[in-house]
Amino acid sequence: MGKGGGCVPSTSRKRASLVKDNPDPNPVVNASENAHDPQETTILEKAIEVDSVALEEDQHPPTFEDASSSPIGATTGKLRIYIVYYSMYGHVEALAKKMKGGVDAIEGVEGVLFRVPEILSAEVLEQMRAPLKDESIPVINAAELTAADGIVFGFPTRYGAMAAQMKAFFDSTGKLWTEQKLAGKPAGFFVSTGTQGGGQETTAWTAITQLAHHGMLFVPIGYTFGAGMFKMDEIRGGSPYGAGVYAGDGTRQPSGVELALAEHQGKYMAAIVKRLVKV
Asked: Domains of the chain: which residue ranges?
């Protein structure tokens, strides 16, 4: 893809193997990806239609006090951190699974993995040489977000901002917005880019608007990873906004330090949620 969008997936790798979370800059592939796929249009139109009906029916949306009748930590059992991601080539998924391990390492908290719906057709995905999805990880719908005590969203970059699949998912949360169901809920981000200047920070930064409109609490990791955030001896994705991975030309796998940063973010988010419960 162009400016920071990504690089060419390796043609030497099989479709079911891990390549990268950025689209192929091949003009033919780009034409297919950027075309108005009927399936994508239908999904987005339905989301807009549902949100419009919600706005018309709810002329007097509830206040935050009404929406927060079940405060964070009110559920029995463990606190739940939802790790909601979109991964086209597997890099974001690798971080997500490692992040779940970090969340699970904190007593009283568990991580739950979810995929957002795909909006590209099977034909387009095949042309883009995207591997098959991990069917063991369920697809989430917007309404399910309310059950989480905290959420970490993961997605690849498209020109320095989130991929369309994740944006379509956020666009489907209109009813939750009118009812303020996500207000006060802590959330964070982790990303994948094809190059060092491809959006490790801007992809998360531009996504903050989604949280702001919902009244959610953005939880960056800052420099809590310690010395690992300052080393210059190897290429490393991630930033104070959240964990990250460089996909490179498709042959590069997430490094040990990138995976460690994702695990750290899971632990950090879990600790923050526990702290909020105690307040």
From this structure: 27-278
